[in-house]
Amino acid sequence: MNRKLLNYWIDMGMAVSFLLVLVTGFLKYKRLLRWLAENGVYLPTYAITEIHKYAGAAIGVFVLVHLVLHFKWIAAVSRRKDKLTMEE
After folding, report:
1. CA-CA distance, 56 to 32, in Å (whole number)?
2. Residue 58 exposure: Cα atoms within 13 Å on the Cβ side
3. Phi, psi at residue 69, to the nearest 5°?
4. Backbone angles phi, psi at 50, to 5 degrees
5. What pLDDT shows up at residue 51?
6. pTM for this one?
7. Which residues, other chains included, contact 83 with Cβ-Cβ below 8 Å and sequence gap of 6+?
8. Which end of the chain has the least Cβ crowding within 10 Å, N or C?
């Protein structure tokens, strides 16, 4: 698999994982769950928690792989001190 395609799939994995964590995180709020139940919408909290847990682990793996793939670029930018100085 070429590098650009690999980066694309890693980025897509991060995006999907992030969205799953975001949505399930909101769905775990007690007030939201109570409001939904009052309006006839019942959500399986166990499934939401499992999705949230595994999506969180997945985003961690995707970010780690992303950092490994871009290590040379990160190191090169970090060495250029003139680009990282704070100007007021």
Report:
1. 21
2. 19
3. -65, -30
4. -65, -45
5. 95
6. 0.77
7. 77
8. C
